[in-house]
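Sample log: DUF1003 domain-containing protein.
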Amino acid sequence: METSPITGSNRVRLDQPRTARPGLLTLPSYDPEAFGVLSERIARFLGTGRFIVWMTVVIVVWVLWNTMLPPAARFDEYPFIFLTLVLSLQASYAAPLILLAQNRQDNRDRVNMEQDRARSDRNIADTEYLAREVAALRHGLGEVATRDFIRSELQSLLKEIDERRDAAESL
C-alpha cells in the first residue's frame, strides 16, 4: 500500500496487480515437467532387475536382522509388521509414479502417431503425384517419334526415291 500525497491515507493501487501474500493457504509450487521426468526415472528403475535384487537384499537383511540378532537389537519382531508397512508405503508411491510415467509415454506415443500419420499422408500424396507424372511422360513418349520409327520412315523414303529414280531412268 502506498500513502496518498493528497489525502495521506493508505489506499490500494488499482492500476497494478496485487502481489501474492504469503499465508497459510499458499501451496508450494512445482514444475510438472520436472516432476514427470523424475517419476519416469523412478518408474524405469522400478522396472529393472537391479531394483528387484536390491529390494530382495533389503528384505533378507531385514528378516535376518530381526530374527538372528539379540532381542535388544531387533526393531521389528516376527510378524514383521513394520516391514509390511514399509513395503505397502513403497507400493503406494510406486503405483502412481508408474501410472504417471505411462500417461506421459502415451502422450508421446500419440504425438508420434500423429506425426507418422501426417508423414504417411505426405508420402501417399508424393507417390500419387509421381505416378501421375510417370503416366504423363509415358503418354508424351507415345506421341514422340522414336528412333525405330524414324529409321523405318527413312527406309521407306529411300525405297520411294529409289523407285522414282528407277522409273525416271527407264523413261
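Observation: The mean pLDDT is 86.
Observation: The longest strand covers residues 2-3.
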